[in-house]
């Protein structure tokens, strides 16, 4: 066993891929014997059951009438430093550049050089915020001042260099997924609630931000269900939910589309689905495509960002240029109409998830980075 590390984790604790990855990583590291301190505004939503190596420190923000905006970032920086000193943390692993990497940089100024900072970039912190003049220089500073920086896909890594002119090396560490018992039947009762045995079940899961192109999801589904009996599950919530709902009504598909809202147990839902849809405009990785893949569910998606690094086109799913819904629907139908092709894709998907994105292998990669920056192993 390598040396046990004391690790502080800052992330967005509510819904979102970066928070999911940070939380699942913390749980894995705790299982591997490390002491994990989550430092966030609320308990991360996927934390689940109690573990003796996991601690939670809540960030409290002062409510002072002079402040127009509550100074969350400053309170987080202060809390990171406090916890680091009190608990003798070896390092902070922060997910998302803004504000977490900036806050970790400030915390390091308060604690001293011995506190190392590992920053994981997740996508929109670079592709959207990194391009914004109001934050760009700050993000570049946070990256340069981190002891190690990781990106969740090669596409994001290259974009970070291109957008910010970053000179420090960046490690590529893919997102990961827990293995799903492949081949074991999903929950048949759950499936029958949404689809009859002869109907296909499609799913889209996201935070319904414009970048997810949820109207494309409706369009793909409308084309598919016109050819084969099918139902669609929408999982999640966000700004474009109302638009998706309105479009479903406009097309008269209310009986065929279910809006499930935010759900914690995504694996149970994915396991009853036949196909996942991810036609995003931009996606540094596409965690949901990996979660679907692990459950043996092929994904039809766009060629955007890091999606082609996750989905093997023509093997575990199909990809088309952003907005090409006709092509995406044709791919979906090709899979849904051909049982032997479908089962080949389904099996290949589960195998690819295990081979390239296994939780244990990725945890080891992060551990190596931690030992490299702390100089201890
Ligand atoms: O996709 C989102 O809108 C949420 C965002 C987040 O910050 O949680 O997701 C980003 O990080 C995920 C985990 O690394 C990636 O799987 C998503 O692709 C990435 N989103 C985008 O790049 C748009």
TrEMBL record:
Residues 16-179 form the Glycosyltransferase subfamily 4-like N-terminal domain. SUPFAM superfamilies: UDP-Glycosyltransferase/glycogen phosphorylase. It comes from the Bacteria. Transmembrane segments: none annotated. Residues 197-351 form the Glycosyl transferase family domain. Pfam families: Glyco_transf_4, Glycos_transf_1. This is N-acetyl-alpha-D-glucosaminyl L-malate synthase BshA.
